[in-house]
Design brief:
The protein is of the alpha+beta class. Helix content is 35%, strand content 38%. The strands form two sheets. Strands 3, 4, 5, 6 and 7 form a five-stranded antiparallel β-sheet that branches. Strand 5 and strand 6 (168-180) form a beta hairpin. The chain is globular. Residues 6-30 and 186-194 have low confidence and may be disordered.
C-alpha cells in the first residue's frame, strides 16, 4: 500500500512531466515562424521581417484606422474600429482619449476627413516580433463647421509598439509625446450639396 508521501511525490512527478511536455509541444506565445504573415489594413499580409523593412507603410496604415475611429461618434463604433488595429494598453488609452474628447464637446458629428498621413522622422527598434517605433507624422485633412472647411496639417510625435496579435499587426503601446498645430491651414468654402 502506497504511503501519502509516495502518492504526493508521484503526483508532483506527473505534474512536472505534464508541464515539461507542454513546454516542448506548445511554442511560447511570442514565438512566431519567420514565414508567418500578419494582416494590416489596406496592405498585403507582412511577415515580421517585412514589417521591419516596411514600417513606413505599416505605421501610417494603422494610424489611418485610428483616425477613422476618432471620426466616429458612436461609442461602439469607436471601440470596434480601434480594436481592429490596437490591443491592450494602446486600445484602452486611445479609446479613453476619444471618449474624453466627446465628453469635452469634441466631435459630435462625423465632420473630419483624413487625406494623408506622412511619416516625418522615425526610428525603429525590434524586440522579437514587436517593433518599437519612435515616430513623428503629419496628418493632412479637413474639418467641417457648418458652411466652411478648415484644412489641417497637424504634426504628432509618439512612441508606439506594433506587434502581431490574433493574426494581425496591432498597436500595442502608444504614448503621445507632442502635438503641433502651427500649420493648421486655411479656410475655404464648403462644396455645394443637394
Amino acid at each position: 500500500m502506497p504511503t501519502p508521501r509516495t502518492l504526493t511525490l508521484a503526483g508532483l512527478a506527473l505534474l512536472a512531466a505534464a508541464a515539461i511536455a507542454a513546454l516542448v509541444v506548445l511554442p511560447a506565445r511570442d514565438q512566431v515562424s519567420a514565414t508567418t504573415a500578419f494582416t494590416a489594413p489596406e496592405l498585403e499580409p507582412m511577415t515580421i521581417e517585412q514589417a521591419r523593412t516596411e514600417f513606413w507603410r505599416l505605421t501610417p496604415a494603422l494610424l489611418l484606422v485610428v483616425y477613422d475611429a476618432f471620426g466616429q461618434t458612436e461609442e461602439d463604433a469607436i471601440y470596434d474600429t480601434l480594436a481592429s488595429v490596437t490591443h491592450g494598453d494602446a486600445l484602452e488609452y486611445l479609446y479613453l482619449e476619444r471618449i474624453g474628447a466627446m465628453a469635452g464637446g469634441g466631435l459630435e458629428q462625423a465632420d473630419q476627413t483624413i487625406h494623408e498621413i506622412k511619416l516625418l522622422n522615425t526610428q525603429v527598434k525590434s524586440k522579437g516580433a514587436t517593433l518599437d517605433i519612435d515616430a513623428s507624422w503629419q496628418v493632412i485633412g479637413t474639418v467641417g463647421h457648418a458652411e466652411h472647411l478648415h484644412v489641417r496639417g497637424n504634426t504628432y510625435s509618439a512612441e508606439l509598439s506594433v506587434t502581431p496579435v490574433e493574426g494581425a499587426w496591432r498597436i500595442t503601446d502608444f504614448a503621445l509625446l507632442d502635438v503641433n498645430r502651427d500649420t493648421a491651414g486655411e479656410t475655404f468654402p464648403a462644396p455645394q450639396t443637394n
